[in-house]
Predict the 3D structure of the following.
Amino acid sequence: MGARSTNCARAERELHVLLERHFQGAHAALEHQHLTGWPIVSYERLLSSRYDAARSSVRELIARAANNGKRLRSGREVARILHGLSSPACPQDEWWNDSAWASLRRIDFEALRRWATAQLRAFAIEPEAFAGSSAKTSASDSLQSSGDGDVGAPEQ
């Protein structure tokens, strides 16, 4: 056995450890930063002014999809597009050419899902607020949503 098989065995052990940590949730953010060089952006950090462009990207995607006759039904669908994750609801063939596809991978998926859910609810209430200016914000920007259901209609 040469150096190559030793390196393969070492890489396999490292991968096993990383997967085990990932599924156990231990140090996931640190592992992500170590592997990608990017820190994971949490929901709280996403709400800071430093991430205005990321939040605007979510709003623009929702408005652009609606203008093109595509209905995004949940924050999960929006987050999947922004992370570049294909699914039956958001197939890669349909979205890969969109500027939003995989554009916000460095932001935590759950943070994007929560923000997108809040924005879908705001869009259902007041779609004209999304038109024209991506910098517009509304009271719904601070919604703390943990639901992932269909947000086509505002909750009562």
